[in-house]
Design brief:
Largest sheet: 7 strands, parallel
Shape: globular
Radius of gyration: 24 Å
Strand order of the largest sheet: 11-14-15-10-9-16-17
Number of strands: 20
Distance between the termini: 47 Å
Bound molecules: nicotinamide-adenine-dinucleotide
Number of helices: 17
């Protein structure tokens, strides 16, 4: 079976889902306590059932989302072995690929961040390149005393928190990995993406049902908040927490007393030395830094280039879709895209990074076109990325700006470049990129920066399997060390021992 939804149904389903979600969101707290039945629209069948009853995974109360996910996981483990899980995962992959344009459009319309074209690619990547059950491996120890196997077992019910920058992509990626490992998952999504996330959850539940799987293996609360997150954290039925977002979220989950996987912020530096293929470096940097308007946590956020290579790099960047801001234009961008940090708050990519400025949410994820319009620049050709030459202390170097404005810092030596890059990364140990043909230089930087992902001579996207080898993830767990998360991450190890030489076939 597959989860294909006909084109005709798609528009009707969206309308129905969004109306249902809207209805719950608009209901007051009292109404949310007492589930409100909504009349199902005849054309959408089960999908149009009540959000509060959560037949398609979207619940008015977090407690109900947890309860339903908990029961679903028990049924899942009773009824589905590895082949069954794979059938369900294939169905989810198919549904997500079929609806990648729709999902991308919904997220863009709801959040206003990034661009539809790149979001389509991200959905496809999450749907097709997230590993399933094949990544789970049993370890065996065989010797004179018998055979011992170590299997990767489910945790049970997982509580997952998602970012506004990859909301539905993370739901698809996490769901596939968590279900492959035999878990169920309850999401507390970023509030600014709750409608598109509800759509994704319903889509996934429909795909699971189409493959004969249990209801509510993947659930969410329709109206997420810090309170619903606390309910998730406190629930005894939730055995593992997985958070993708900034440092505040990771800190909160790590204080929970539960097994927590934290995927935090980055501020990825790029070093370009004078042995690099400068044209290739320029193209790669523009590809990575402009993708989805620089929303990705792995995206190039600042460049340190050896002075002897700087003019060449900038020349090729200008020839490949970049536009250089002059001093006056840069000052204007700082006026509207940054905010003074008057209360000296720790915000941004590092909690101990108290800076003079914050990025203005209004400008996060906006396009280069929107910036140029605000600046009154009329470009001769398509501009994907704005670049500027600045010093190391500049806020655009120090902050995780998530805007298509890339600062470039000239340095005199490789040692200076590495020193600056390590400092600008703020100890997140997330992602770094280097363009060089000198193996010693590449190794020197990789050792010093200690990031989870280190990309050589390619765009940052290669680090998550987009134009590079290896599987993908939307949850890069640097702070807690799991790295590129997959089904393996969402397991607990169980040992089974057959002693006294049992099962040994050699003497
Ligand atoms: P965010 O930290 O503002 O929000 C992420 C999630 O955490 C949301 O669901 C939000 O509601 C919740 N949250 C926010 N502050 C919280 C707190 N103090 N306590 C508990 N929950 C909290 O991040 P965002 O703006 O949604 O996403 C962008 C950030 O996420 C960037 O810093 C980016 O680098 C990071 N990110 C990391 C990865 C990764 O794999 N490591 C992937 C995507 C995004």
């Amino acid at each position: 079976m597959n989860a294909q939804i006909s084109d005709q149904d798609i528009q009707k389903i969206i309308q129905s889902v969004l109306q249902n979600v809207e209805s719950v969101l608009n209901s007051d707290a009292k109404a949310a306590q007492a589930p409100v039945k909504m009349k199902p629209a005849s054309h959408t069948g089960q999908i149009a059932s009540t959000v509060s009853q959560g037949e398609n995974g979207v619940f008015a109360r977090m407690e109900d989302a947890i309860e339903a996910g908990y029961s679903a996981q028990l049924a899942y483990m009773r009824q589905f072995e590895l082949k069954g899980r794979e059938r369900i995962i294939s169905s989810i992959r198919q549904a997500a690929v079929n609806e990648k344009e729709q999902l991308a459009r919904l997220v863009y319309e709801e959040t206003g961040l990034g661009n539809v074209e790149d979001k389509i690619s991200k959905h496809e990547l999450a749907a097709l390149q997230t590993p399933g059950t094949e990544i789970l491996k049993t370890e065996a120890f065989s010797g004179d005393d018998g055979l011992t196997i170590v299997e990767e077992a489910p945790f049970g019910l997982i509580g997952a928190v998602t970012p506004v920058t990859n909301p539905t992509e993370t739901i698809i990626n996490n769901s596939i990995g968590m279900l492959a490992a035999g878990n169920a998952v309850v999401f507390n999504v970023h509030p600014s993406s709750k409608k598109s996330c509800a759509y994704a959850i319903i889509l996934i539940n429909k795909a699971i049902k189409a493959a004969g799987g249990p209801e509510n293996l993947v659930t969410m609360v329709a109206n997420p908040s810090l309170e619903t997150m606390q309910t998730l954290i406190d629930s005894l039925k939730v055995r593992m927490l997985v958070g993708t977002g900034g440092p505040g979220l990771v800190k909160t989950l790590l204080k929970s007393g539960k097994k927590a996987v934290g995927a935090g912020a980055g501020n990825p530096p790029v070093i370009v030395d004078n042995t690099a293929d400068l044209e290739h470096a320029a193209q790669s940097i523009i590809t990575g830094a402009s993708f989805d308007n620089n929303l990705l946590c792995i995206a190039e956020k600042e460049v340190f280039v050896l002075d002897s290579a700087a003019d060449g790099l900038i020349f090729h960047m200008l020839n490949n879709g970049a536009c250089m801001l002059d001093q006056h234009q840069l000052e204007r961008v700082m006026e509207f895209a940054l905010e003074a940090n008057e209360k000296q708050e720790s915000r941004g990519c590092s909690l101990d990074n108290k800076r003079e400025y914050h990025v203005s949410k209004k400008w996060v994820g906006r396009s280069a076109d929107q910036f140029m319009k605000e600046l009154g620049i009329i470009p001769d050709s398509t501009v994907k990325l704005l670049i500027c030459e600045v010093d190391f202390d500049h806020p655009f170097v120090q902050l995780e700006q998530m805007m298509p404005v890339l600062p470039i810092v000239r340095v005199n030596t490789l040692e200076e470049a590495i020193d600056f890059a390590v400092k600008a990364e703020h100890g997140n140990r997330h992602t770094a990129i280097m363009h060089s043909k000198n193996v010693d230089h590449l190794t020197q930087f990789a050792k010093a920066i200690e990031t989870t992902i280190f990309v050589k001579n390619a765009s940052s996207l290669a680090g998550v399997g987009f134009g590079g080898e290896g599987f993908t993830t939307m949850t890069i767990a640097g702070p807690t060390g799991e790295g590129i998360t997959s089904a393996k991450t969402f397991t607990r190890q169980r040992r089974c021992v057959l002693a006294e030489g049992g099962f040994r076939i050699i003497g």
